[in-house]
Design the sequence.
């Protein structure tokens, strides 16, 4: 008999996760999942509150005899990154995510992201709110919106929205590790005016495509040697243009600002005299890329002849675009000297789109040093401005400065050693967490972040390690009963 999700431990947590998977929750469109949470609270007689930003907090009174314990906030974000691999036609606004068990892992059927980031954190909150055997002080479960796209939920929190001053963020992805700091981030977008012109007789057209890359989280995975599909595609076109001259009719790739691009494609035209040279250049480049990009065994590079379009970018606009993408910073800028092995500063070339008369290039930058975050954002902005693009930058979000002396950290660490015979690994993370914003909203709040093991978040290969979920839940229960 096929194993059901609720056969995994703890069954109630997996049951809640399965319910969450049935409710659409793309970033910025969380109305359905927040209504689901409000209904969850109402049906159980739990106090709840929603704010103007869309966040929801649900409160559970302390168990008898624990009324004097400190109030604890459990926090998870309600939205998910919506990515699919093209094998199906999933509508993230309507269709449920279909979790399936694959050995010790749970992933999504149909080639989509699973949404365990942060659906597993949400499910743990729901179980904490309903588990009558759990002994705890006053409990608040905070569900924030739009974390993946811009943390607008955390930005919009009012100072009286939660009362607790101890917070457990349930949005980390490595069981046995406790995070006490994170990087801050900012988005930088370029809008480039491209001039098109008719394609003259004697020109051929080709479509080049890069696919099959792993992609992944632009913070957690930026130092793993994974390919950026836009960079790979553009390098081939840049080489051709510098040597022979081409004209781009269309170029697009990537999707989410916080995901490393897995796919990119372009249509370009070239003088028919260079037909053999274009083919030979591509073959050499494809072979060299496959040989050198060791982290991407599934990479696919294809070049096909297509019908010649009537118009394409002129020579000057093509050169500007290809040089902009070639020069745009991507990858690790600096490793931390304070925390060995931690990426300090990075940039992600996230997406390219042709929108009417504009070419839109979206990027993001991260650092746990505020001045370096702005420095790398300035470097990206400078490349864009040199190309004559109009530049827009988000307000960004702050990093979370580590507090090794945290009283909550001591409770969490002692609990882990008591349960599992060893202390947890305590470190900072290069990904962005909402904790930096919480600290601005609630000065003095004591926070840690921890979670079960997830892999390849923000990509269709996303999966969560089921045995780690059970151990993580035990750890969470012990922390709540100890505080």
Sequence:
């Amino acid at each position: 008999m096929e194993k059901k999700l609720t056969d995994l431990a703890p069954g109630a947590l997996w049951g809640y996760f399965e319910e969450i998977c049935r409710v659409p929750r793309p970033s910025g469109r969380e109305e359905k999942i927040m209504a689901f949470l409000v209904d969850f609270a109402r049906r159980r007689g739990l106090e709840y509150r929603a704010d103007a930003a869309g966040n929801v907090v649900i409160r559970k009174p302390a168990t008898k005899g624990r009324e004097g314990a400190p109030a604890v906030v459990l926090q998870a974000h309600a939205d998910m990154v919506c990515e699919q691999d093209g094998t199906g036609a999933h509508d993230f606004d309507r269709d449920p995510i279909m979790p399936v068990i694959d050995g010790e892992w749970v992933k999504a059927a149909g080639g989509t992201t699973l949404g365990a980031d942060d659906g597993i954190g949400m499910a743990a909150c729901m179980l904490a709110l309903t588990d009558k055997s759990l002994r705890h002080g006053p409990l608040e479960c905070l569900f924030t919106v739009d974390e993946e796209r811009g943390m607008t939920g955390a930005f919009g929190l009012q100072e009286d929205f939660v009362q607790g001053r101890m917070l457990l963020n349930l949005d980390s992805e490595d069981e046995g590790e406790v995070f006490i700091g994170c990087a801050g981030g900012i988005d930088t977008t370029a809008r480039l005016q491209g001039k098109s012109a008719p394609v003259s007789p004697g020109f051929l057209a080709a479509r080049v495509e890069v696919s099959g890359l792993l992609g992944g989280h632009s913070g957690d995975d930026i130092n793993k040697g994974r390919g950026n599909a836009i960079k790979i595609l553009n390098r081939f076109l840049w080489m051709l243009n510098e040597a022979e001259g081409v004209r781009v009719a269309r170029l697009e790739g990537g999707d989410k600002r916080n995901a490393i691009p897995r796919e990119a494609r372009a249509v370009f035209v070239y003088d028919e005299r260079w037909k053999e040279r274009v083919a030979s250049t591509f073959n050499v480049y494809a072979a060299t890329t496959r040989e050198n990009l060791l982290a991407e065994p599934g990479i696919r590079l294809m070049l096909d002849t297509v019908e010649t379009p009537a118009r394409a970018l002129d020579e000057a606009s093509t050169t500007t675009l290809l040089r902009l993408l070639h020069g745009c910073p991507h990858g690790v800028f600096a490793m931390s000297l304070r925390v060995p092995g931690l990426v300090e500063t990075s940039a992600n070339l996230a997406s390219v789109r042709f929108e009417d008369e504009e070419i839109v290039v979206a990027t993001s930058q991260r650092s746990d040093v505020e001045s370096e975050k702005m420095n790398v954002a300035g470097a990206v902005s400078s490349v864009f401005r040199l190309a004559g693009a109009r530049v827009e930058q988000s307000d960004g979000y702050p990093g979370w400065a580590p507090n090794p002396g945290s009283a909550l950290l001591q409770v969490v660490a002692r609990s882990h050693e008591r349960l599992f015979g060893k202390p947890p690994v305590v470190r900072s993370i290069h990904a962005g967490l909402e904790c930096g914003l919480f600290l601005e909203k609630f000065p003095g709040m004591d926070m840690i972040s921890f979670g079960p093991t997830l892999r390849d978040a923000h990509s269709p290969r996303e999966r969560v390690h089921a045995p780690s979920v059970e151990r993580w839940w035990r750890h969470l229960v012990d922390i709540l009963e100890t505080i």
